[in-house]
Amino acid sequence: MLAVFRHALIFGLGPVLQKAASLVLLPLYTHHLDPGDYGEVEMLTLLVGLFVVVFCFDYRQGYIRALTKAPEPGAHSALISASVLLFGMTATAGAACFFLILPFFCDLMLGYRLGAGYSIILLVGLFADIVNFLLMATAQARLWSSRMVATGLLQFTIGTGLSVYLIVYRDAVPLGLFAGNAAGSLLMMAILLWMLRRDFQIPQRWRATVTPILAYSAPLLVGSLIYFVLRLVDRAVISKFLTLDDLGIYGMSWKLSGLLLTFMFLPFLRSFDVWRFRFYEEGKRTDDVAQIGRVFITGVAGAALLLATFGAEVFLLVADSRYASATILLPVLNAATLFQCCYTLCAASFFVTGATRTWLLILSAGMVVQVTGSIALVQAIGIQGAGISMLVSNMVIYAITAFLAPRYWRIPYRHGLFLTMIGAVTILSLGRTLLPHDNMLQNLAIDSLMVFSFLVFSCTLGAIRIAEVRQGIELSARSLHKLLGKISSRIDPGR
Question: Helical H runs in 242-329?
């Protein structure tokens, strides 16, 4: 269990430091981008994300699986070289299709077209994102967690620095955000290619090498498209039935709630994606997986409460008043994120056994709930309806997944505990949202009381164990010390 969280922690250190810096820059963005500008960013990000999903084929799961089972380093190199060639072609094709579709998308969703320079920046960023999808999966499969943290921090520094310069000093709003992201993605691509240079060779029979992975990934690609619609259709619905200003507020709400994904969910998933196959192959590790799930859900639940209390206070203090209403949606969006974490844990049973079509059907049911719910509720109650629809759809996916997953790989997850933790965090967060935020000292006292109550409640239920807390603190200290030692040794090789 500790190995999973050790790699998750190292993978998460980079994003944590990046998001910490992003929070410092948040007032800058809210004061220079009005909600309409942020709504534009949301819609263009949606389009770029769609192309990344389509032209990456959800190749990662099958690719990591193939690398894990590859018998020797030579087979690794052949697989990596063939896959890089494939993704070079798909990234080029994706950029070309994007160039053709972008004007029509802007006419439909924004009501205006972008300039040539703006479009080129989006194209370059899309190309780099598609290639990086494969390169980062390779680094993930090899558990290069420390290297990825250092590379991610460098990417963030360059990209964010350029964005700040363009927004503040050149008034390039919101183009500056995409220009910085494109520069950072290109830098990441160059570094990863250099790190993998020893694996590159002239691919022999590259089609035969990648075809089994593509066949494995085909149903997963459909699932990724369904998941994309499930996760982002609410933005399109808000843009269609409301305004870009409303979309900007909703997008900012998700930016705040998305800190849970960046800090907790994605680092864990990058580690767990690899380890779950190993646990399954080894057999008789289901109790370990269940304990990992308990610790993970408890940690995310605690982080959700911190975000809805202290995090909301900080945001209201430093952000522009135009975005103040973004915190109202936090309890609902955080609950939706927690259910996403739960069903992702359970869905491991489908991936390790290859039962991906079952997972596809489950996501389809959630997508139907999300699409119909978003269209109906957004028109009825505004952006609050989009958040409620997302919550309900994630609850449906979790319920079906928890019921079906044991048929493929039975893991004794404590689903009652998961639901209790989510319910407690949601009730406390909703209560905090309804209370006034006028007096800072009073706010801090209330927030502290709520967090303390949650900790006591969690200990009473057995969700938090003192020995595990002690192990977690020691693990964090060792991992941080190891990472800083590696970074300092590269800066000063003589040390």
Answer: 244-260, 266-282, 286-306, 312-318
Residue type, 18: Q
Burial class of 463 by CB neighbour count within 10 A (0 to 12, 13 to 18, 19+)? buried
Phi, psi torsion values for 146, nearest 5 degrees: -65, -40
The packing angle between helices 244-260 and 383-404, to 10°, is 40
**pLDDT value, residue 492:** 52
**270: three-class secondary structure by DSSP:** helix
**Count of beta carbons in the 10 Å neighbourhood of residue 88:** 14
For the stretch 341-377, what's the b/e string if a residue is b when 16 or more beta carbons lie within 10 angstroms of its beta carbon? Answer: bbbbbbbbbbbbeebbebbbebbbbbbebbbebbbeb
- Length of the chain equals 495
- Give the integer Cα–Cα distance in Å for 279 and 409: 11
Mean pLDDT of the chain: 85
Contact 113, 106 (CB under 8 A): yes
Give me 261's structure tokens: 């994904």
**Per-residue pLDDT tens digits for 394-440:** 999 999 999 999 999 899 999 999 999 999 999 999 988 887 767 78
Sign of the Cα pseudo-torsion (405, 3, 84, 94, in order): positive
Does 1 have pLDDT greater than 80?
no
> How do the domains of the chain map onto residue ranges?
33-218, 242-483
Q: Which residue has the tokens 């009005």?
A: 34
Residue written as token pair 């290859």: 354
How far apart (Å, rounded) are the C-alpha atoms in residues 375 and 386? Answer: 8
Q: What is the pLDDT of residues 20-63, one digit of tens each?
A: 555 566 667 788 889 999 999 999 999 999 999 999 988 988 89
Which of the four pLDDT bands, split at 50, 70 and 90, describes residue 12? very low
